[in-house]
């Protein structure tokens, strides 16, 4: 059991390290523009955010899918 915990922790640390390296390498290049969006589910209520309309629309679709999945799984 402890081996799985250590393997999971190692994977998380490697992932965080890769994100930090990518962040600094992109910042050094300059001129990059980051766009994105997401859904924060607070119980059955979605909170949708996005940096532009395209990603906000994707987040809305994701929120609808998550709500439908929640309702279907609660019926079973």
Structure description:
This protein has about 80 residues and is of the alpha+beta class. It folds into two domains: about 1-30; about 35-75. Helix content is about 65%, strand content about 15%. The protein has two helices and two strands, in the order αββα. It has helices at about 1-30, 55-75, and strands at about 35-40, 45-50. Strands 1-2 form a two-stranded antiparallel ribbon. A hairpin with a 2-residue loop joins strand 1 and strand 2. The longest helix has 28 residues, at about 1-30. The chain is flat, with a radius of gyration of 18 Å. The protein starts with a helix and ends with a helix. The relative contact order is 0.09. The mean pLDDT is about 85.
Characteristics:
76 residues; 2 domains; 2 strands; two-stranded antiparallel ribbon; alpha+beta
Layout: helices, strands, pairs:
Blueprint: H1 2-29, E1 37-42, E2 45-50, H2 53-75
Antiparallel strand pairs: 1-2
